[in-house]
Write a sequence for this structure.
C-alpha cells in the first residue's frame, strides 16, 4: 500500500494545516509536529526533500549568490515607469532559500512598542528566548572582524569617523549605533534555509506530511469557523478538512488567501464576485518595506588586488558586515542600515557598493486581488516614499550623506574611489531627493498586511494570539502580522513569528 505521506498525496484531513512551508511556516509546522500533533504542510512550490538531495536548485543552496529560481514573479507592475522586482521563492523553505542570510533582531523598542499597544506577550523580553532558539535552529554563526573581506573591513575600520563604534555583534537589543560583522545562517558555504533547519529533523515523523505543488486557493469557513482549505494540486481541486488552519504565506500571499476566502474589505471583494464571509477592512493594507538606496564606487587597484588575494585564499561572502546609525528623525535607537556589498559573480564587471536603508518607513501601501484566480498575480503597491512629511526620503538622504562622509575620509577614499552611482550630480540635497523619488528601491522585507491589533482596532486582522478577528480556527503566522517593521532584516523576526504562534497553539492545546 502506498504511504500518502511519502508519496506527497493530499490527505483528506489534518489536525493542523499549515499553508506555506517558508520561513515562518517551517517553524510552526516543526514545533507542532515535535509535540506530537498531526500536521499537514501545503507548499505552493516544490518540496525538494531534505538537505543534500540532488533536486535542490544550485542557486538556493549556494550562499555566495542570491537565488532567483522558482520565483513567484511578483513585481511593481505599471506602478512606476520601470519594474521593481519583489522576489519571493515559491518552494519549500520560502524566501529563506534565496536571501542574503543576514540575521538581525532589531531593537528592544520595536517589540516593546507592540506590547505597549495592547499585544500582550510580544515584548522584547517575551521574544528574546525565541530569537535565541531560532538562531540555534537556523545554525547561525557570528563572523568575527578578522574574517571580513577587505571591502567589508575597509568600511568597518572607517565607521567610527561618523560616530559608529566598532561592535562585535549587531544583535544586542539594547544597543544603538555601531558597525559589526554579521551573523549568518551559512554552513560550509551552504545557505541553511528554514526547511533544512526546521523540517528536516521531523520529516520522519508519521504525523507530519509535507505536500509540494499544492496551491491553496481559499480557506473554507462554515458559520464563522475555518474548517479546511481548497487546494489546487497536480491539476485537481480538493478540499482538505482541518482542525486549525495556519496561514504562513508571507506578506503578499497570506492576505490574498484571506481575500479569496471572502475575508476582507467588502468593496474589494464584490467586484470580483467573491462572496463576503467576514468584512475585515485591514486585510492587505499596511504593506510596508524599508526603502533602499544602493551607492556604487569605482574601487581601486589596491582594493581589487586585496579582494583577489582574499578570494584566492578562501570564500569571500558578498554580505558580511553591517552598520546601524540614527538619522536626525530618530530619538530611540537607530533607523538606518549600511550594507557594504561586493558581488563576486559579475566577472570583470565588478561593482563596489554600499547600500543604505530607512528602517522605520512611514509610507504604507497595499496588496489587492486582480482576480479570484489563485494563480493571478496580485496588485502590489508599496507606495514607496509616499509619506506626506517626506520622512522616508529624508532618512535615506541622511544615510547617503553619512556614507559620503565615510567615503571621503583619508583612510577610505583611496580604497573605494570615486562615487559612480547615484553620482556627483546628486550631491545637492534636492538633486538626491529627486533621484530617490524617481528610483525607489526595496530591501526585500515586506510586512504588515495582516497586522496584529486589539479588538476594536478597525485596521487589525489578527489579535495578539494571531487569531483572525471574527473567524474561529484560523491563524496567521508570518511577517504579515507585524504591526510595524522592526529595525532589522526580517528573516529572523519571521522565524520568531512562527515560533511564537506555534507556542501559542501548543499552550492552548494543553490548556
Amino acid at each position: 500500500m502506498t504511504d500518502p505521506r511519502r508519496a506527497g498525496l493530499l490527505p483528506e484531513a489534518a489536525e493542523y494545516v499549515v499553508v506555506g512551508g517558508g520561513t515562518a511556516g517551517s517553524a510552526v509546522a516543526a514545533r507542532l509536529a515535535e509535540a506530537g500533533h498531526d500536521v499537514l504542510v501545503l507548499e505552493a512550490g516544490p518540496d525538494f526533500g531534505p538537505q543534500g538531495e540532488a533536486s535542490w536548485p544550485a542557486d538556493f543552496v549556494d550562499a555566495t549568490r542570491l537565488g532567483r529560481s522558482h520565483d513567484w514573479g511578483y513585481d511593481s507592475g505599471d506602478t512606476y515607469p520601470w519594474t521593481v522586482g519583489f522576489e519571493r521563492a515559491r518552494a519549500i523553505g520560502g524566501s529563506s532559500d534565496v536571501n542574503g542570510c543576514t540575521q538581525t533582531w532589531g531593537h528592544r523598542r520595536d517589540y516593546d512598542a507592540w506590547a505597549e499597544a495592547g499585544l500582550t506577550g510580544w515584548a522584547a523580553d517575551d521574544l528574546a528566548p525565541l530569537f535565541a532558539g531560532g538562531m540555534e535552529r537556523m545554525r547561525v554563526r557570528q563572523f568575527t572582524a578578522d574574517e571580513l573581506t577587505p571591502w567589508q573591513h575597509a568600511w568597518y575600520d572607517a565607521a567610527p569617523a561618523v560616530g559608529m563604534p566598532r561592535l562585535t555583534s549587531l544583535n544586542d537589543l539594547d544597543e544603538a549605533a555601531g558597525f559589526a560583522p554579521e551573523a549568518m545562517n551559512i554552513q560550509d558555504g551552504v545557505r541553511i534555509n528554514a526547511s533544512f533547519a526546521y523540517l528536516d529533523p521531523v520529516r520522519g515523523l508519521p504525523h507530519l506530511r509535507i505536500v509540494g505543488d499544492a496551491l491553496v486557493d481559499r480557506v473554507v469557513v462554515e458559520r464563522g469557523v475555518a474548517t479546511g482549505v481548497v487546494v489546487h494540486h497536480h491539476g485537481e481541486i480538493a478540499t482538505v478538512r482541518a482542525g486549525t488552519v495556519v496561514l504562513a504565506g508571507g506578506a503578499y500571499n497570506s492576505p490574498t488567501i484571506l481575500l479569496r476566502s471572502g475575508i476582507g474589505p467588502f468593496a474589494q471583494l464584490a467586484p470580483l464576485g467573491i462572496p463576503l464571509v467576514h468584512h475585515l477592512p485591514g486585510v492587505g493594507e499596511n504593506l510596508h518595506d524599508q526603502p533602499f538606496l544602493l551607492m556604487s564606487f569605482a574601487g581601486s587597484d589596491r582594493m581589487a588586488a586585496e579582494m583577489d588575494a582574499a578570494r584566492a585564499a578562501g570564500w569571500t561572502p558578498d554580505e558580511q558586515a553591517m552598520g546601524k546609525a540614527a538619522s536626525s528623525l530618530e530619538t530611540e535607537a537607530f533607523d538606518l542600515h549600511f550594507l557594504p556589498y561586493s558581488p563576486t559573480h559579475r566577472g570583470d564587471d565588478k561593482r563596489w557598493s554600499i547600500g543604505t536603508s530607512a528602517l522605520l518607513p512611514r509610507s504604507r501601501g497595499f496588496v489587492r486581488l486582480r482576480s479570484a484566480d489563485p494563480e493571478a498575480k496580485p496588485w502590489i503597491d508599496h507606495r514607496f516614499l509616499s509619506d506626506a512629511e517626506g520622512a522616508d526620503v529624508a532618512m535615506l538622504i541622511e544615510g547617503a550623506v553619512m556614507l559620503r562622509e565615510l567615503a571621503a575620509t583619508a583612510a577610505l577614499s583611496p580604497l573605494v574611489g570615486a562615487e559612480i552611482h547615484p553620482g556627483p550630480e546628486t550631491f545637492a540635497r534636492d538633486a538626491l531627493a529627486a533621484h530617490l523619488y524617481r528610483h525607489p528601491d526595496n530591501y526585500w522585507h515586506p510586512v504588515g498586511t495582516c497586522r496584529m491589533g486589539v479588538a476594536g482596532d478597525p485596521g487589525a486582522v489578527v489579535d495578539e494570539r494571531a487569531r483572525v478577528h471574527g473567524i474561529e480556527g484560523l491563524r496567521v503566522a508570518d511577517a504579515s502580522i507585524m504591526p510595524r517593521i522592526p529595525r532589522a532584516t526580517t528573516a529572523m523576526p519571521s522565524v520568531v513569528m512562527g515560533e511564537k504562534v506555534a507556542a501559542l497553539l501548543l499552550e492552548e492545546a494543553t490548556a
